[in-house]
Amino acid sequence: MTVKVRTVACTALLLLFSGISVFASNTPLRLLIKPVSDRVQSIRFQTGVEETDRWALVPASNPLLVLEAFDSSKDRLFVQQSLDKQSWSSSYEYQYDSSTKSWKITPLRVVIKPVSNRIQSIRFQTGADETDIWTEVPASNPALVLEEFDSNQDKLFVQQSQDNQVWSSSYEYRYSPSDKRWTVTPTEADSSSLVESLDLKLYNLYPLSKSSTYYSYVIGAGLKMNMALNKQETLLGYAEAAYSMGPSKSDWVDTMQAVNLSVGIGYRFAITDKLQMTPELGYGVVVHLLNADFDQDGTKTFEPFVDQQIRLSLNLGYELNDSYTLLIAPLGVVFFEKNTIGTLLGIQTSLRFNF
């Protein structure tokens, strides 16, 4: 999970001289800023609707800001502080509330990146300790607004959900004003499983070209283990073991049987919230298990041998719920023997168990 900070929490105290109107006028508005620490050497500021690169500089020893023609209905005050007059802090952004005649700092805004594209909702809270009071935002717009966040003692707690009912363990964040960064405290939520999902699959293949002289058809079943290779869970690696069999077209082989072992990679695209597509490419071996009469002496014996193979598929998946996904795909298998290439083409269907 990554976090982007738009503004930082401010500990500066903004003091307004009494008896001064804060509406656009010819009388300059004078404000006194209290530095965040006694190490601050300089303060710079500007006013307007948006921040620009035009700053007015004042010494921290006399932090009096003079605002010309400040319009509280639309203008904001931007303030930065520096320890060395070269490196400046992020901007403290103030707005004047004419109803209460007080200055307020713009709330801290944090953007959370969901751990996967299956996340639907994010909820959060701030404080010294986690409670049962949460604020929920959609994963499509995961901007968290932190009111009155005190970086000296408060923490940010974040949970994510795929169905708005079952929530993850909490991600616990602390903000460091010195280096202006968020750090996450290791929790149970950070420990991810190596296996992302398991597929139970059935497939039916038909031989093409020269393979059709040996096979009528092939049916098989397999177990496929999927592993997420990136945080977005879009790049997938897999390992698969399968067993297949089919009637033989030759009189010197009883039944065509094989064990298929392969590893591969795929990339998952989200078509809709429930529908996804994953092209996959795999490589492995086919262990043929034949009861055959290769030397044609009239006696059939057990004759295993191994070929290399390439497997291609285009999986279309529909997410039934958080735990199960139904997949269907065209499947092609190419295996290499000594002087020939075998080709099989068909379809497979799978039930995926998501972890």
Q: What is the distance, rounded to the nearest whole angstrom, between the alpha carbons of the first and last residues?
A: 18 Å
Mean pLDDT over all positions: 82
Decide which structural class fits the backbone.
Answer: mainly beta
- Per DSSP, the total helix count is 0
**CATH top level of the largest domain?**
Mainly Beta
Radius of gyration, CA atoms, in whole angstroms: 33 Å
How many DSSP-defined strands?
25
> What number of domains?
3
The biggest beta sheet reads: 8 strands, antiparallel, barrel
Could you give the topology of this structure?
Blueprint: E1 3-5, E2 13-16, E3 29-34, E4 42-48, E5 56-59, E6 64-67, E7 76-82, E8 92-97, E9 102-105, E10 108-112, E11 121-127, E12 135-138, E13 143-146, E14 155-161, E15 171-176, E16 181-185, E17 197-208, E18 218-228, E19 235-247, E20 253-267, E21 269-270, E22 275-292, E23 301-319, E24 324-336, E25 341-354
Antiparallel strand pairs: 1-10, 2-3, 3-6, 4-5, 4-7, 7-8, 8-9, 10-13, 11-12, 11-14, 14-15, 15-16, 17-18, 17-25, 18-19, 19-20, 20-22, 21-22, 22-23, 23-24, 24-25
Description:
With 355 residues, this protein is mostly beta strands. It folds into 3 domains: 3-106, Sandwich (Immunoglobulin-like); 113-190, no CATH class; 197-354, Porin, CATH 2.40.160. It is 0% helix and 56% strand. The chain is built from no helices and 25 strands.
